[in-house]
Protein backbone atom coordinates (compact mmCIF):
# COMPACT_ATOMS: atom_id res chain seq x y z
CA UNK A 1 0.00 0.00 0.00
CA UNK A 2 1.23 3.48 -0.82
CA UNK A 3 -1.38 5.85 0.60
CA UNK A 4 -0.45 9.49 0.26
CA UNK A 5 -1.89 12.94 -0.27
CA UNK A 6 -0.82 14.11 -3.72
CA UNK A 7 -0.28 17.77 -4.57
CA UNK A 8 0.58 18.86 -8.12
CA UNK A 9 4.23 19.46 -8.92
CA UNK A 10 3.95 21.89 -11.82
CA UNK A 11 6.45 24.34 -13.21
CA UNK A 12 5.68 26.07 -16.48
CA UNK A 13 4.72 23.44 -19.03
CA UNK A 14 6.02 20.50 -16.99
CA UNK A 15 4.09 18.41 -14.46
CA UNK A 16 6.10 15.64 -12.83
CA UNK A 17 3.35 13.77 -10.97
CA UNK A 18 -0.27 12.70 -11.41
CA UNK A 19 -3.36 11.91 -9.32
CA UNK A 20 -4.83 8.44 -9.89
CA UNK A 21 -8.38 9.33 -8.82
CA UNK A 22 -8.43 12.45 -10.97
CA UNK A 23 -7.17 10.47 -13.96
CA UNK A 24 -9.84 7.82 -13.32
CA UNK A 25 -12.59 10.44 -13.32
CA UNK A 26 -11.18 12.00 -16.50
CA UNK A 27 -11.28 8.65 -18.29
CA UNK A 28 -14.76 7.87 -16.97
CA UNK A 29 -16.09 11.22 -18.25
CA UNK A 30 -14.68 10.46 -21.72
CA UNK A 31 -16.28 7.03 -21.65
CA UNK A 32 -19.62 8.57 -20.71
CA UNK A 33 -19.43 10.76 -23.83
CA UNK A 34 -18.45 7.85 -26.09
CA UNK A 35 -20.98 5.29 -24.84
CA UNK A 36 -23.71 4.26 -27.21
CA UNK A 37 -25.73 1.15 -27.86
CA UNK A 38 -23.46 -1.24 -29.71
CA UNK A 39 -25.03 -3.52 -32.27
CA UNK A 40 -23.64 -7.02 -31.95
CA UNK A 41 -21.81 -8.16 -35.08
CA UNK A 42 -20.33 -11.47 -36.08
CA UNK A 43 -16.88 -9.96 -36.54
CA UNK A 44 -15.78 -7.45 -33.91
CA UNK A 45 -13.25 -4.97 -35.34
CA UNK A 46 -9.67 -5.20 -34.07
CA UNK A 47 -7.78 -1.93 -33.61
CA UNK A 48 -4.13 -1.17 -32.88
CA UNK A 49 -3.53 2.21 -31.22
CA UNK A 50 0.11 3.30 -31.22
CA UNK A 51 0.38 6.03 -28.60
CA UNK A 52 -2.69 5.08 -26.57
CA UNK A 53 -2.36 6.64 -23.13
CA UNK A 54 -3.08 10.36 -23.44
CA UNK A 55 -4.64 12.95 -25.73
CA UNK A 56 -5.95 11.87 -29.12
CA UNK A 57 -4.61 8.33 -28.80
CA UNK A 58 -6.43 7.63 -25.54
CA UNK A 59 -9.56 9.36 -26.86
CA UNK A 60 -9.42 7.17 -29.98
CA UNK A 61 -9.19 4.01 -27.92
CA UNK A 62 -12.14 5.08 -25.77
CA UNK A 63 -14.29 6.23 -28.70
CA UNK A 64 -13.68 2.98 -30.58
CA UNK A 65 -14.20 0.71 -27.56
CA UNK A 66 -17.36 2.22 -26.11
CA UNK A 67 -18.72 3.49 -29.41
CA UNK A 68 -18.19 0.39 -31.54
CA UNK A 69 -17.22 -2.45 -29.19
CA UNK A 70 -13.80 -2.90 -30.80
CA UNK A 71 -11.05 -5.11 -29.47
CA UNK A 72 -8.00 -2.92 -28.93
CA UNK A 73 -4.30 -3.33 -28.44
CA UNK A 74 -2.68 -0.16 -27.10
CA UNK A 75 1.02 0.75 -27.12
CA UNK A 76 2.39 3.40 -24.77
CA UNK A 77 5.58 4.26 -22.88
CA UNK A 78 4.59 5.33 -19.36
CA UNK A 79 6.20 5.47 -15.93
CA UNK A 80 4.65 3.19 -13.29
CA UNK A 81 4.46 4.31 -9.65
CA UNK A 82 7.52 3.59 -7.54
CA UNK A 83 7.76 4.18 -3.80
CA UNK A 84 6.62 7.72 -3.05
CA UNK A 85 6.71 8.69 -6.71
CA UNK A 86 3.43 8.56 -8.56
CA UNK A 87 3.04 6.99 -11.95
CA UNK A 88 2.73 9.20 -15.00
CA UNK A 89 -0.65 10.51 -16.06
CA UNK A 90 -0.66 8.15 -19.06
CA UNK A 91 -0.02 5.21 -16.75
CA UNK A 92 -3.01 6.07 -14.55
CA UNK A 93 -5.17 6.81 -17.61
CA UNK A 94 -4.38 3.36 -18.98
CA UNK A 95 -5.07 1.71 -15.63
CA UNK A 96 -8.47 3.43 -15.54
CA UNK A 97 -9.17 2.42 -19.14
CA UNK A 98 -8.47 -1.23 -18.33
CA UNK A 99 -10.52 -1.17 -15.15
CA UNK A 100 -13.61 0.06 -16.97
CA UNK A 101 -13.06 -1.99 -20.13
CA UNK A 102 -12.95 -5.12 -17.95
CA UNK A 103 -16.09 -4.07 -16.08
CA UNK A 104 -17.95 -3.55 -19.36
CA UNK A 105 -16.72 -6.77 -20.95
CA UNK A 106 -14.41 -5.39 -23.66
CA UNK A 107 -11.19 -7.01 -24.84
CA UNK A 108 -8.14 -4.80 -24.37
CA UNK A 109 -4.44 -5.61 -24.46
CA UNK A 110 -1.74 -3.12 -23.49
CA UNK A 111 2.02 -3.04 -23.99
CA UNK A 112 4.19 -0.55 -22.09
CA UNK A 113 7.41 0.14 -23.94
CA UNK A 114 9.17 2.13 -26.65
CA UNK A 115 6.97 1.95 -29.76
CA UNK A 116 9.96 3.02 -31.88
CA UNK A 117 11.85 -0.16 -30.97
CA UNK A 118 11.91 -3.42 -32.90
CA UNK A 119 11.36 -5.27 -29.61
CA UNK A 120 7.97 -3.66 -28.98
CA UNK A 121 6.95 -4.10 -32.62
CA UNK A 122 7.71 -7.81 -32.36
CA UNK A 123 5.87 -8.10 -29.05
CA UNK A 124 2.85 -6.42 -30.64
CA UNK A 125 2.98 -8.81 -33.60
CA UNK A 126 3.06 -11.76 -31.22
CA UNK A 127 0.00 -10.48 -29.34
CA UNK A 128 -1.96 -9.81 -32.53
CA UNK A 129 -1.18 -13.29 -33.83
CA UNK A 130 -2.22 -14.92 -30.57
CA UNK A 131 -5.36 -12.93 -29.77
CA UNK A 132 -6.66 -11.04 -32.80
CA UNK A 133 -5.47 -12.67 -36.00
CA UNK A 134 -5.60 -9.47 -38.05
CA UNK A 135 -6.04 -5.73 -37.48
CA UNK A 136 -8.80 -3.70 -39.15
CA UNK A 137 -7.57 -0.23 -38.16
CA UNK A 138 -4.23 1.22 -37.04
CA UNK A 139 -4.27 4.56 -35.20
CA UNK A 140 -0.86 6.27 -35.09
CA UNK A 141 -0.77 8.93 -32.37
CA UNK A 142 2.81 9.06 -31.12
CA UNK A 143 4.15 12.26 -29.57
CA UNK A 144 7.68 11.98 -28.26
CA UNK A 145 10.62 14.38 -27.91
CA UNK A 146 13.18 11.71 -28.78
CA UNK A 147 13.62 8.49 -30.71
CA UNK A 148 16.40 5.96 -30.55
CA UNK A 149 16.58 4.69 -34.11
CA UNK A 150 16.06 0.91 -34.14
CA UNK A 151 18.48 0.34 -37.03
CA UNK A 152 21.31 2.78 -36.30
CA UNK A 153 21.03 3.22 -32.52
CA UNK A 154 21.30 7.00 -32.95
CA UNK A 155 19.48 9.02 -30.27
CA UNK A 156 17.51 11.65 -32.20
CA UNK A 157 16.06 14.57 -30.24
CA UNK A 158 13.50 16.95 -31.70
CA UNK A 159 13.46 20.74 -31.40
CA UNK A 160 10.69 23.30 -31.74
CA UNK A 161 12.29 25.98 -33.87
CA UNK A 162 11.62 28.00 -37.01
CA UNK A 163 13.37 27.16 -40.24
CA UNK A 164 15.40 29.68 -42.26
CA UNK A 165 14.77 32.87 -40.27
CA UNK A 166 14.37 33.79 -36.63
CA UNK A 167 10.85 34.08 -35.30
CA UNK A 168 9.75 36.92 -32.98
CA UNK A 169 6.21 36.71 -31.65
CA UNK A 170 4.04 37.07 -28.56
CA UNK A 171 3.86 34.28 -26.04
CA UNK A 172 2.81 33.80 -22.44
CA UNK A 173 5.41 33.07 -19.81
CA UNK A 174 3.75 30.09 -18.11
CA UNK A 175 5.63 30.69 -14.86
CA UNK A 176 5.01 34.42 -14.42
CA UNK A 177 1.83 34.60 -16.56
CA UNK A 178 3.10 37.64 -18.43
CA UNK A 179 2.76 38.38 -22.14
CA UNK A 180 6.25 38.71 -23.55
CA UNK A 181 7.90 38.84 -26.95
CA UNK A 182 10.05 35.83 -27.67
CA UNK A 183 12.68 35.45 -30.38
CA UNK A 184 13.53 31.93 -31.45
CA UNK A 185 16.55 31.38 -33.65
CA UNK A 186 16.31 29.03 -36.64
CA UNK A 187 17.17 25.37 -36.43
CA UNK A 188 20.37 23.96 -37.85
CA UNK A 189 20.26 21.34 -40.60
CA UNK A 190 21.13 18.69 -38.01
CA UNK A 191 18.26 19.79 -35.74
CA UNK A 192 15.85 19.68 -38.67
CA UNK A 193 16.96 16.17 -39.59
CA UNK A 194 16.67 15.00 -35.98
CA UNK A 195 13.17 16.41 -35.61
CA UNK A 196 12.05 14.68 -38.82
CA UNK A 197 13.60 11.44 -37.56
CA UNK A 198 11.56 11.68 -34.33
CA UNK A 199 8.27 13.13 -35.51
CA UNK A 200 8.16 12.22 -39.20
CA UNK A 201 6.71 9.11 -40.80
CA UNK A 202 9.59 6.66 -40.91
CA UNK A 203 8.46 4.83 -37.78
CA UNK A 204 4.92 4.46 -39.15
CA UNK A 205 6.41 2.93 -42.29
CA UNK A 206 8.35 0.48 -40.13
CA UNK A 207 5.12 -0.47 -38.32
CA UNK A 208 3.18 -1.04 -41.54
CA UNK A 209 6.02 -3.03 -43.09
CA UNK A 210 6.16 -5.25 -39.99
CA UNK A 211 2.39 -5.82 -39.99
CA UNK A 212 2.17 -6.49 -43.72
CA UNK A 213 5.12 -8.89 -43.66
CA UNK A 214 3.23 -11.06 -41.16
CA UNK A 215 -0.12 -10.69 -42.98
CA UNK A 216 -1.63 -8.97 -39.94
CA UNK A 217 -3.60 -6.25 -41.76
CA UNK A 218 -7.10 -7.43 -42.67
CA UNK A 219 -8.52 -6.90 -46.17
CA UNK A 220 -9.59 -3.24 -46.55
CA UNK A 221 -7.82 -2.25 -43.32
CA UNK A 222 -7.34 1.47 -42.72
CA UNK A 223 -4.45 3.44 -41.20
CA UNK A 224 -4.93 6.90 -39.69
CA UNK A 225 -2.11 9.14 -38.46
CA UNK A 226 -2.72 12.37 -36.57
CA UNK A 227 -1.29 15.74 -37.51
CA UNK A 228 -1.78 19.48 -37.08
CA UNK A 229 -1.44 22.49 -39.36
CA UNK A 230 -2.84 25.52 -37.54
CA UNK A 231 -3.31 29.18 -38.47
CA UNK A 232 -0.92 31.82 -39.76
CA UNK A 233 -0.21 33.00 -36.19
CA UNK A 234 1.63 29.79 -35.33
CA UNK A 235 3.01 29.17 -38.81
CA UNK A 236 6.68 30.09 -38.19
CA UNK A 237 7.02 27.97 -35.07
CA UNK A 238 4.76 25.14 -36.21
CA UNK A 239 3.74 24.37 -39.78
CA UNK A 240 6.75 26.13 -41.37
CA UNK A 241 9.07 25.14 -38.52
CA UNK A 242 10.89 21.96 -37.67
CA UNK A 243 7.78 20.18 -36.45
CA UNK A 244 5.93 21.22 -39.60
CA UNK A 245 8.65 19.70 -41.78
CA UNK A 246 8.32 16.51 -39.77
CA UNK A 247 4.57 16.51 -40.37
CA UNK A 248 5.18 17.01 -44.11
CA UNK A 249 7.40 13.93 -44.01
CA UNK A 250 4.65 12.05 -42.17
CA UNK A 251 2.09 13.06 -44.79
CA UNK A 252 4.30 11.97 -47.71
CA UNK A 253 4.82 8.59 -46.12
CA UNK A 254 1.11 8.22 -45.33
CA UNK A 255 0.34 8.77 -49.01
CA UNK A 256 2.99 6.21 -50.00
CA UNK A 257 1.50 3.75 -47.51
CA UNK A 258 -1.96 4.39 -48.98
CA UNK A 259 -0.72 3.39 -52.45
CA UNK A 260 0.83 0.23 -51.07
CA UNK A 261 -2.24 -0.74 -49.02
CA UNK A 262 -4.57 -0.18 -51.94
CA UNK A 263 -2.44 -2.48 -54.06
CA UNK A 264 -1.95 -5.24 -51.47
CA UNK A 265 -5.12 -5.36 -49.34
CA UNK A 266 -7.48 -2.80 -50.90
CA UNK A 267 -6.93 -0.67 -47.80
CA UNK A 268 -6.20 3.00 -47.22
CA UNK A 269 -4.01 5.31 -45.13
CA UNK A 270 -5.21 8.75 -44.09
CA UNK A 271 -3.85 11.81 -42.32
CA UNK A 272 -6.31 13.36 -39.87
CA UNK A 273 -5.54 17.03 -39.21
CA UNK A 274 -6.89 17.65 -35.73
CA UNK A 275 -7.69 20.73 -33.67
CA UNK A 276 -5.19 22.42 -31.36
CA UNK A 277 -5.74 21.13 -27.83
CA UNK A 278 -4.12 21.57 -24.44
CA UNK A 279 -1.47 18.94 -23.80
CA UNK A 280 1.96 18.73 -22.22
CA UNK A 281 3.40 18.56 -25.74
CA UNK A 282 1.55 21.66 -27.00
CA UNK A 283 2.34 23.58 -23.80
CA UNK A 284 6.03 23.21 -24.64
CA UNK A 285 5.65 25.01 -27.98
CA UNK A 286 6.27 28.77 -27.69
CA UNK A 287 3.33 30.94 -28.84
CA UNK A 288 0.88 28.01 -28.77
CA UNK A 289 -0.43 28.32 -25.16
CA UNK A 290 -1.37 31.96 -25.76
CA UNK A 291 -2.96 31.06 -29.07
CA UNK A 292 -4.99 28.22 -27.53
CA UNK A 293 -6.12 30.45 -24.66
CA UNK A 294 -7.53 32.98 -27.13
CA UNK A 295 -8.89 30.31 -29.46
CA UNK A 296 -10.73 28.45 -26.70
CA UNK A 297 -12.48 31.57 -25.44
CA UNK A 298 -13.77 32.30 -28.95
CA UNK A 299 -14.76 28.71 -29.75
CA UNK A 300 -16.48 28.30 -26.38
CA UNK A 301 -18.51 31.44 -27.04
CA UNK A 302 -19.57 30.04 -30.42
CA UNK A 303 -20.26 26.58 -28.96
CA UNK A 304 -17.71 25.09 -31.38
CA UNK A 305 -15.00 23.88 -29.05
CA UNK A 306 -13.99 20.23 -28.89
CA UNK A 307 -11.78 18.25 -26.55
CA UNK A 308 -9.88 15.24 -27.92
CA UNK A 309 -12.73 12.85 -27.09
CA UNK A 310 -15.23 15.05 -28.96
CA UNK A 311 -12.94 15.11 -31.99
CA UNK A 312 -12.43 11.36 -31.98
CA UNK A 313 -16.12 10.61 -31.59
CA UNK A 314 -16.72 12.83 -34.62
CA UNK A 315 -13.82 11.29 -36.56
CA UNK A 316 -15.13 7.75 -36.20
CA UNK A 317 -18.83 8.57 -36.53
CA UNK A 318 -18.48 10.79 -39.60
CA UNK A 319 -15.27 9.77 -41.37
CA UNK A 320 -13.65 6.48 -40.39
CA UNK A 321 -16.44 4.41 -38.87
CA UNK A 322 -17.83 1.18 -40.34
CA UNK A 323 -19.06 1.50 -43.93
CA UNK A 324 -17.92 5.14 -44.23
CA UNK A 325 -15.88 6.57 -47.08
CA UNK A 326 -13.97 9.52 -45.60
CA UNK A 327 -14.49 13.00 -47.00
CA UNK A 328 -11.02 14.43 -47.65
CA UNK A 329 -9.61 17.70 -48.95
CA UNK A 330 -7.62 18.15 -52.16
CA UNK A 331 -4.54 16.74 -50.40
CA UNK A 332 -6.38 13.64 -49.10
CA UNK A 333 -6.44 15.02 -45.56
CA UNK A 334 -9.33 14.51 -43.17
CA UNK A 335 -9.93 18.00 -41.79
CA UNK A 336 -10.97 17.73 -38.16
CA UNK A 337 -9.62 21.26 -37.72
CA UNK A 338 -12.49 22.67 -39.79
CA UNK A 339 -14.03 24.48 -36.82
CA UNK A 340 -10.75 25.93 -35.57
CA UNK A 341 -10.00 27.32 -39.03
CA UNK A 342 -13.52 28.55 -39.79
CA UNK A 343 -13.22 32.05 -41.26
CA UNK A 344 -15.09 33.83 -38.46
CA UNK A 345 -13.05 32.06 -35.78
CA UNK A 346 -9.75 32.90 -37.50
CA UNK A 347 -10.79 36.55 -37.91
CA UNK A 348 -11.63 36.93 -34.23
CA UNK A 349 -8.45 35.18 -33.12
CA UNK A 350 -6.39 37.49 -35.34
CA UNK A 351 -8.14 40.56 -33.93
CA UNK A 352 -7.60 39.56 -30.30
CA UNK A 353 -4.04 38.47 -31.02
CA UNK A 354 -3.20 41.94 -32.35
CA UNK A 355 -4.65 43.56 -29.22
CA UNK A 356 -3.59 41.25 -26.40
CA UNK A 357 -1.20 42.60 -23.77
CA UNK A 358 -0.65 42.26 -20.04
CA UNK A 359 -3.49 44.67 -19.21
CA UNK A 360 -6.22 42.92 -21.22
CA UNK A 361 -4.79 39.37 -21.27
CA UNK A 362 -7.41 37.79 -19.00
CA UNK A 363 -10.25 39.56 -20.81
CA UNK A 364 -9.25 38.42 -24.28
CA UNK A 365 -7.90 34.96 -23.43
CA UNK A 366 -9.18 32.19 -21.21
CA UNK A 367 -5.88 31.54 -19.50
CA UNK A 368 -7.56 30.47 -16.26
CA UNK A 369 -9.36 27.80 -18.28
CA UNK A 370 -6.06 26.87 -19.94
CA UNK A 371 -4.35 26.36 -16.58
CA UNK A 372 -7.27 24.38 -15.19
CA UNK A 373 -7.39 22.14 -18.26
CA UNK A 374 -3.63 21.64 -18.11
CA UNK A 375 -3.86 20.53 -14.48
CA UNK A 376 -6.84 18.33 -15.37
CA UNK A 377 -4.57 16.40 -17.75
CA UNK A 378 -2.67 15.11 -14.73
CA UNK A 379 -5.73 14.44 -12.60
CA UNK A 380 -5.66 17.70 -10.63
CA UNK A 381 -8.52 20.19 -10.13
CA UNK A 382 -10.97 17.56 -11.37
CA UNK A 383 -14.48 18.16 -10.10
CA UNK A 384 -15.61 15.72 -7.41
CA UNK A 385 -12.14 14.66 -6.22
CA UNK A 386 -11.17 15.17 -2.57
CA UNK A 387 -7.51 16.12 -2.84
CA UNK A 388 -7.05 16.16 0.95
CA UNK A 389 -7.79 12.44 1.06
CA UNK A 390 -4.80 10.05 1.06
CA UNK A 391 -5.08 7.66 -1.87
CA UNK A 392 -3.43 4.51 -3.16
CA UNK A 393 -0.81 5.33 -5.79
CA UNK A 394 0.29 1.75 -6.47
CA UNK A 395 -2.07 0.97 -9.33
CA UNK A 396 -1.43 -1.90 -11.72
CA UNK A 397 -2.20 -2.43 -15.39
CA UNK A 398 -2.63 -5.95 -16.82
CA UNK A 399 0.30 -5.57 -19.21
CA UNK A 400 1.49 -8.34 -21.49
Outline the structure in words.
The structure is a single chain. The protein is of the alpha/beta class and 400 residues long. The chain has a single domain (3-160, 189-287, 305-338, 384-392), classed as NAD(P)-binding Rossmann-like Domain (Rossmann fold, 3-Layer(aba) Sandwich), CATH 3.40.50.720. It is 41% helix and 18% strand. It is built from 13 helices and 15 strands. It has helices spanning 20-34, 55-68, 89-103, 118-132, 189-199, 202-213, 242-265, 280-283, 288-301, 308-318, 343-355, 361-364, 367-377, and strands at residues 3-4, 10-11, 14-15, 46-50, 71-76, 108-112, 135-140, 146-148, 155-157, 167-173, 178-184, 217-227, 268-273, 333-335, 391-392. The chain has a seven-stranded parallel beta sheet with strand order 6-5-4-7-12-13-14, sandwiched between helices. The longest helix has 24 residues, at 242-265. The protein is globular, with a radius of gyration of 21 Å. The chain starts with a strand and ends in an 8-residue tail after the last strand.
In short:
With 400 residues, the chain is α/β, with parallel strands linked by helices. It contains 13 helices and 15 strands. Helix content is 41%, strand content 18%.
